[in-house]
Amino acid sequence: MKLQLPLFPGYVFVHLALSERLRVLQVPGVAKLVGFGGQPAALPDAQLEALRAGLNGQLCAEPHPYLAVGRRVRVLRGPFQGAEGILSRKKGVFRVVLSLELILRSIAVEVDAADVEPVFQKERHI
User: Fold this and answer.
1) Which of these, 65, 104, 74, 109, lies nearest to 88 by C-alpha position?
2) CA-to-CA dists, residue 106 to 12, 20, 72, 96, 114, angstroms
3) Residue 21 contacts by C-beta under 8 Å, 6 or more apart in sequence?
4) Burial of 43 (0-12, 13-18, 19+ CB in 10 A)
5) Quick check: 73 and 87 in contact, CB under 8 A?
6) For residue 73, is pLDDT > 90?
7) Could you tell me the pLDDT band of residue 74, with boundaries at 50, 70 and 90?
8) By three-state DSSP, how is residue 25 classified?
9) pTM exceeding 0.70
């Protein structure tokens, strides 16, 4: 059985003039427009076209947590499963920097992006 699910749950991509944004916000289920500093922001057309072209080519795609270099991640599979470190990238290859704090040493291990997940740290209240 094949099941189709949205790649970006909760998002609908639209082209609209800013003067039309109120009409979009009145559609049931629409909460807000994506933006920064209170101003709507547009995704670059090139990114959307590349995504559309790739998906029209019948590539298999699935949602994946956003990974940012410098972010703390957890290794999901492989010999370092369960380890946490900082995501880095060198020559197009993802690596996780694992640190042994007691001896102030680190190693970088290559990982596939599908084999790590972001670690969401709890907020600390002072």
Assistant:
1) 109
2) 42, 53, 14, 10, 22
3) 33, 40
4) exposed
5) yes
6) yes
7) very high
8) helix
9) no
Q: Which amino acid, residue 16? A: L
**Shortest CA distance to 2 belongs to which of 62, 65, 48, 50?**
62
Q: Which secondary-structure segment (H or E) carries 23?
A: helix 21-25
Per DSSP, the residues of 32-74 read ---EETTEE-PPPHHHHHHHHHHHHTT----------TT-EEE
Q: With respect to CATH, is domain 72-118 assigned 3.20.20?
A: no
The b-or-e profile of 73-104 (16+ CB within 10 A means b, else e) is bbbeeeebeebebbbeeeeeebbbebeeeeee
> For 49-71, what is each residue's pLDDT tens digit?
877 877 777 666 667 667 788 99
| Domain range annotation of the chain | 18-56, 72-118
Structure tokens at 13: 């991509």
Angstrom distance (rounded) from CA 50 to CA 56? 10
Place of tokens 């670059």: 44
